[in-house]
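Figure S4 source data
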Amino acid sequence: MVREEEGEKEREEGQGRKGNRKREKESKRRRERREQEKKREKEREESEESEEREESEERGKKEGTGAQEGHPAPEQGPSRRVSGFRIGGAPELCIPEHGAGRVTMTQKNTKQEMTGDAVVDNPANIAPAVGAGRMQPPSETPGLKKQLKNRHIQLIALGGAIGTGLFYGSSESISLAGPSIMLAYIIGGLAIFMIVRALGEMSVEDPQAGAFSYYASRYWSKRAGFVSGWNYWFNYILVSMVELSVVGSFVNYWFPGIPTWVSAVFFLIVITALNLLGVSEFGEAEFWFALIKIIAVIAMIVGGIVIIVCALPTDLGVRASFANWFSIDGGFLPHGLMQQTSDGHWTGLLMALVVVMFSFGGTELIGITAGETAEPRRTIPKATNGIIWRILVFYVAALGVIMAVVPWNRIDGTMSPFVQIFDSVGVRIAAGLLNFVCLTAVMSVYNSGLYANSRMLYALAHQGNAPRYLGRVNRRGVPVAGVLTSAVITAFAVVVVFVWPEFAFNYLMSIATIAAFINWTMVLITEWKFRRTVEAGNGPGALKGLTGRDAVQALAFKLPGGHVSSVVVIAFMALVAVLMGFSASYRVALIAGVIWLAVLLTVYECMARAERRSEAQQH
């Protein structure tokens, strides 16, 4: 008996020792991982310090040489050599941290010398001119201020997927698929999540203004950067055009005597002035715009649930219940996967995917903000990972509650489904409240669009893909030229809407429809190119020098599934493009998209040839 007790005690002690050893091993592995992370961070800091010292020494040599040749040294601060890119600037536009002086620049493989006043933070951030080769890896975005806080990024990400399309356009998607539209949003949401994760992988390791355009230019080709950047810029010009052209209708709800063009001009001036103040002001405004939209959606969901749970009577003749998803006019999947109606239109779950995908435009704004985010390695992953639950709450839950209260076949687009749900129980004030929410949504879209466009022009200028004056910033870190240029072009586009509405909506908006599709596809391809660069040992920052699997494992925010995910999502995008061909309106967008891509590629080739001729003449 004593032996058995002693044996049992020994076994317990043995198991305890094994558990202790296991915990010790796990603790050791965690310590080793932390030490490796600290080591990589230290190596990156040392690498950056070394680069700065080398640049400082090189500037000293250049300044000494310039003085000997009769060029005066800069008065306000050190100038920097920029290879393969001619930058013009003005001293009054310099940033406090970096003075603007006379810069001597030489282009590789040419004898040409170029001089001008530049506002440059890090010459490695500047890409060669068109046709002059690949960019060098940057350490940070030059000139811009990292003033966007975590709460700004989170609300920008939250509000990015909520616009007038949800409040008014959701009736179209419901009519196509009925209750199964919720499934369409889940499928489309997963695809968008993977696209933004691909962008997030690059943004965390290399946070830059211009995001996907910059990454396409650096890791893919100069041509890809040009196409991606200008395509995105023109897309937001057109989206802003539409939003400003309809803002008057929301104002007229309260003040019917005000001409719609007056409202458009007023809000264009106000939002433009806001963007000229600084990035923190943009972030603060977008924070409150997004908060209003979020509160509106949550209030609708809560109100709808109260109607369902409390069995409040409605004037629709049907009791509010989640069972309505399955019991009304064909059930959950009333039109099947795909079905042609008697008038020749196609409906069904697959056709709804087309509408659903385009409702997610704006989610990629997270990547644009990375260059001005104080802590991109912390805030970008958090905002990106929140996309899934945002889609589940703001789209799936919202539409699910709507169709539980209002039968899906009674949602005909004559009024917003969000108004219809409260109107059915006699809450008439809902229309006025939603009108206010939509007005803030319009301002939010133009605010985000102007911000994104000014930063895109800034990035394109630093790639050599746009006029160099667009790459300057003022003392507040605002690319003033980019803001004003985008605002003026948007104003012109609004005039086009009022003068030639059919041309604007039938053709220009067709380009805007397909432009987001083009950029999403390019983001996935660029991420694949980025991974190949990282695996080859040429990754940015602390990744530089690491190769193969070690380099991929060192990525702080990896795309789940890697290349496999990219291929699957690209195949899904191709399916949606094919489905667009079955719809007359989207078929026009497909044709316009092909023509638009051809125009962008032609312009790039003309610029590249002009650059090569200029270089040849100077030899």
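Figure S5 source data
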Amino acid sequence: MSSIEDKKQDPTNPAKPDGEMIDALNKAAKEGAGEQPNDMQDAHKMGCPATHLTRANGAPVVDNQNSLTAGPRGPILLQDLWLNEKLADFAREVIPERRMHAKGSGAFGTFTVTADITKYTRAKIFSEVGKKTEMFARFSTVAGERGAADDERDIRGFSLKFYTEEGNWDMVGNNTPVFFLRDPLKFPDLNKAVKRDPRTNMRSPTNNWDFWTLLPEALHQVTIVMSDRGIPKSYRHMHGFSSHTYSFINADNERFWVKMHFRTQQGIENLTDAEAEAIIAKDRESNQKDLYDAIEKGDFPKWKMYVQIMPEADAEKVPYHPFDLTKVWPKGDYPLIEVGEFELNRNPDNYFLDVEQVAFAPSNLVPGISVSPDKMLQARLVNYTDAQRYRLGVNRNQIPVNAPRCPVYSNHRDGQGRVGNNYGSRPHYEPNSFNQWQEQPQFAEPPLKIDQYADRFDFREDDSDYFSQPRALFNLMNAEQKQALFDNTAAAMGDALDFIKYRHIRNCHACHSDYGVGVAKALGMTVEDAIKAYETDPAKHLESCLPPKA
């Protein structure tokens, strides 16, 4: 037996407390000839002290092999405190998974400013060239559950948490510059459509494509997901985007609209369906392994940050809706401006503690970075923090990976899981006579002019240009890329009902005749039959079921 197994506790030399023990293990692991221990045997050889099993209250566990019973074959006794505690805690180890983005990987890193953008924003994270800020990144698939394969055709989440001196700034984005929707009222429906069918408990191409084809504004995102870029080779080989329009506020209290881009320095690399299927057959955690292994080897991945800046007044002049999440800003109009670079250089010591419990929220903003009238963003400002209160609790920001690195005086007190001094004996109200909880009007933003009636406006009446931007994207593709788009679409549609396939062909044809013809051919159909099928489409009465274009 190893010394870990047979060593008895010396009462004159008690075990270190849990926190010190963890620090000792981590220190020994990091100092052990430059290598990480593969298991506790290796850790012990590197000089880690033995740990001694206790109950949650610190009391020693005498026997972890045999339950307390009445005789060798008798029933278990209720007074077996360790068995009761062990089973009860085990039953509660799993917290609710994220409704979307459940499967993910993460790492710590450093953001460095490489260019001066202080004329656009007063955010201190960007205050000087060369400034460094600690950060955490999480990448994910979107539709799949915790056990989903990494290499599925799907959007990838791209979320960054910057621990700035003014508070945590969360950039909660994706690896695509657009999204399926303009209006968040349909967001729950989208998630249900791409999740499991309530009857079969299987993913349904019919449900998925029925919903997508009834939102013609989704074609831009659908085209990206069905293109070569629908399956990144790894998290290291994809770009990231804010997707939403945000705002910058500068020292003169001027507002600029902004979109953020994070361009991989490893180069864009993608997988075909066949390549992804072969990888999934061997490894369902391929992207997680790739990111973890690269960082462990010192091959730290990097992304360059750029922004597109639009003067506030331009929003009223551009021919497209600047706050529409289904559209991009042409780079010819608003070119990329370099900001900085982030590097991921440290793997979490514990996946659950950091990757599973990290909570990103678009509402986590700092002075100089703010919101816009983007409808989807407006809804996410509320929805994300609401979801985190359900998943992690009201004191989620006390979890180390979520905790700001600056002083926090929110006067949010008590609640389940509260730790720390809970703001001690300070008065728990404001205003008060003791100079506590003073507001900070110096960080006020400029007023945003809104002079409209409140109503449920049909956004299609405001802007029904669903296809010009996906058409421009299609025109950028070469023949090989277009064929991949057609083939990937046909494979993804699978056994979806024919009238849904015909509807998608009509949408593609309205975007570009070659797009419609290519998808139709890949599906073994024709554009002519798709046009005729409009008359029998069961959703024909819906405004979003577009009539065919010749």
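Residues 466-536 form one domain. The longest strand covers residues 104-113.
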